[in-house]
Amino acid sequence: MDGYFGSYVLVAALLAIGVAIVAGALLANRLLRPSRPTPEKLTTYECGVDPVGEGWAQSQVRYYVFTYLYVVFAVDAVFLFPWATVFDAPGYGLTTLMEMFVFLGFIALGIVYAWRKRVLTWT
């Protein structure tokens, strides 16, 4: 397995073995489990309370916006930690600092936009 494609063959073989193990486990589970469906087992169950009303519930867009803002901050943190470790290395001084300020400026601009649109108010 030498050469350029040798590593790829090894990764593909390990991937195939992993998929085969997972598929085998799921197949064994399906063959060995008991299946006795009853009307009580097929009803909807939610936190110990019998279902009442329809299954349709609307969610406000506000919750998704908060989720997206969290993702933005998480991505921001993912970029900040490696930058903080490399910043101290020789040769990265002012240029790296300015690039990070530009990046943080874009993040701040997005937060200011969300604040101006009153997305960040929780009512």
From TrEMBL:
Chemical reaction(s) catalysed: a quinone + NADH + 5 H(+)(in) = a quinol + NAD(+) + 4 H(+)(out)
Listed EC numbers: 7.1.1.-
A Pfam family per the record: Oxidored_q4
InterPro entries: NADH_UbQ/plastoQ_OxRdtase_su3, NDAH_ubi_oxred_su3_sf
Subcellular locations according to the entry: Cell membrane; Membrane
Membrane topology of the entry: Multi-pass membrane protein
Keyword entries, A-Z: Membrane, NAD, Quinone, Transmembrane, Transmembrane helix, Transport
Membrane-spanning intervals of the chain: 6-28, 63-84, 96-115
Function (record text): NDH-1 shuttles electrons from NADH, via FMN and iron-sulfur (Fe-S) centers, to quinones in the respiratory chain.
Family: Belongs to the complex I subunit 3 family.
Full protein name: NADH-quinone oxidoreductase subunit
Source organism: Nonomuraea marmarensis
